[in-house]
Amino acid sequence: MTTQTATAAAALDEAFSLDHLLGQEELRWRDSARRFARERIAPVIEQDFEDKHFRREFVAELGALGFLGMHLKDPGCAGAGAVAYGLVCHELEAADSGWRTFVSVQGSLAMSAISKFGSDEQKAEWLPPMARGERIGCFALTEPQGGSDPAAMTTTARRDGDDWVIEGAKRWIGLAALADVAVVWAATEDGVRGFVVPTGTPGFTATAIDGKLSMRASVQCDIVLDGVRLPASAMLPGARGLSGPFSCLNEARYGIVWGAMGAARSCLEVSIERATSREVFGRPIGATQLIQQKLADMLVEYEKGMLLALHLGRLKEAGRLTPTQISVGKLNSVREALAIAREARTILGGDGITNAFPVMRHMANLESVRTYEGTDEIHTLVLGRALTGLAAF
């Protein structure tokens, strides 16, 4: 971080003053994530984004810091509070959405599914090494023909003697080509069920999706399940129907509420830096009313987003957070983060389209965040249904 960026960050912190709303343990988690994001991710992320490079060596480091599955209370997991987890997501996404996505896929999706619905044997086998970053997991729900309608799932699991045989395909599955284990959701005669699938099982193939203009330092994949044979013990015994995967998705959506505001903060910080250092017509551009209005509007939306995230975190810790409330947070945070990123680009002028600044990278990544874990349209309809009692899907 440059001196100018640090000054901008300090100005933003002083204008907001969130710290007094947080506990000491929450601040410890935040500061740990902030150091990792600034010292390890930030120096290499622009080149990694350009090269489409995922730094697998960071996985064990994230595990050593306790970030993987940190909100779970299983053996090997940190058992941290919801706000602490949100703050970690916030700091990682301030560096890059891909690394918050990794923590979400590993902890909020794959590990959460095993924690919520797995047998004691499944938990003991997978959760401790996943928490340490020794094993990577993925969560295979979305299918090629349409991610917003999981009820139309075509992947099937059928009984064959004492075994299960899975046939089908999944798409946009984070980490699948790197994963040691996949939580695969499939339709059975008894409804949708989840299965713990070691990725070395014959018939399981994961191929990284190329050509992405977003999330380039992350890995998303197509999966083919061609006669994948599993023992009966591979089924997650506690999950039946779509409520199982949906509960995991809500864990990940909650992290996005905080994470997207991290990307917004990064864009706001560089805008403040640029506004005070760039001189045009004999004075800093930040001395003009139009630039100050842009910065003020960005700050207001950022503060509102963070206060909403904190409110949802406290509700989650009290056991009162609802899926509708999560939809409010996800819809607002991503939408406003994108608006802040686009306004930041105008303040940076032509330089804003270069990788000298993180804004275009954040903007591109946020387009993916806007789509996964429920599109804007889906969350809008969730809220409309909650307000009217009428489903418009």
TrEMBL record:
Residues 241-387 form the Acyl-CoA dehydrogenase/oxidase C-terminal domain. GO terms for molecular function: fatty-acyl-CoA binding; flavin adenine dinucleotide binding; glutaryl-CoA dehydrogenase activity. Pathway: Amino-acid metabolism; tryptophan metabolism; Amino-acid metabolism; lysine degradation. It catalyses: glutaryl-CoA + oxidized [electron-transfer flavoprotein] + 2 H(+) = (2E)-butenoyl-CoA + reduced [electron-transfer flavoprotein] + CO2. Its EC number is 1.3.8.6. Its cofactor is FAD. This is glutaryl-CoA dehydrogenase (ETF). It comes from Leifsonia shinshuensis.
